[in-house]
Structure formats: C-alpha cells, structure tokens
C-alpha cells in the first residue's frame, strides 16, 4: 500500500475517533437543550443517555478495533491516530458551536461539565492507545502464528 493511501486511511480513522469524542462532548454539553427538544424529564433523559453512552462505547470500540486491525493492517504507525484525533474533534466542536450557538441562558452546561471534558480529553488518548495497541499486537501475533 502506498504511503499516500495509508496516510489517507490514517486521517479517516482519526476523523472517526474525533467524531466519536465530539459526539460524547456534545451530548454532555447540550444536556439541557436536548432535554427541552426531546421533551424528556431529567431522570428519563439520564437513563436514555446512559444507554446511548454504553452502546456507543461498545460500538466505537468494535469499529475502531476492526478498522485498526484489518483496514489499517495493524501497522505501528497507526498509533499516530492517538494524537491526530484532536484536530478533528476540535473542528467538529467548533463547527457545531458556530452553527448552533447557545442562545437560551438555560441551555448553558452545568458547572462541572468543563472538568469532566478535561478529564475526557486526557483519558481518551489512553483509550485509543489501548484499542490501537491491541489491534497492532493482535495483528502481529496472528502474523507470527501463520509462519
């Protein structure tokens, strides 16, 4: 595979990682707005979002592992995606903040949202490193067993 094709795949995977982070952040920050738009009370909204987050976690982990192992061929340079996701996430977040600004003061996120997002920003690369590392190791172990 040429390096241009691989770089394109790496950027597509990094954009997927950035979009996954963006989705979680937007669900966290826009809690009150989504509650109002969906017509759900706080308890019901929290129940629904708990299931959405759990389902999304397992779905993203499965897609990330499969993509990293098979589409990216388990190369070690795949580990660059643990850093490349950040510009894409920032771009997605900026885009939504620009096109869908908070106009109602009641829709502003709670006071703890910032510290939670900071923790997510620190831990997300660790999660990606784990998923990509397992994919790289799984691919190299499978390649050694076939020789």
What does this entry show, briefly?
With 147 residues, the chain is mostly helical. It contains five helices and no strands. The chain has helices spanning 3-29, 31-38, 42-71, 81-99, 113-145.
Low-confidence stretches at least 5 residues in length (pLDDT < 50)? none
Question: Main β-sheet: number of strands, strand sense, barrel status?
Answer: none
Structural class by SSE content? mainly alpha
Q: Based on CA inertia axes, which overall geometry fits?
A: elongated
Helix content: over 70%
The structural domain count equals 1
Q: What's the count of strands? A: 0
The fraction of residues assigned to DSSP E strands is under 5%
Taking Cα atoms only, what radius of gyration do you get, to the nearest Å? Answer: 18 Å
Transmembrane segments: 12-31, 51-71, 83-102, 114-137
Keywords: Membrane, Transmembrane, Transmembrane helix
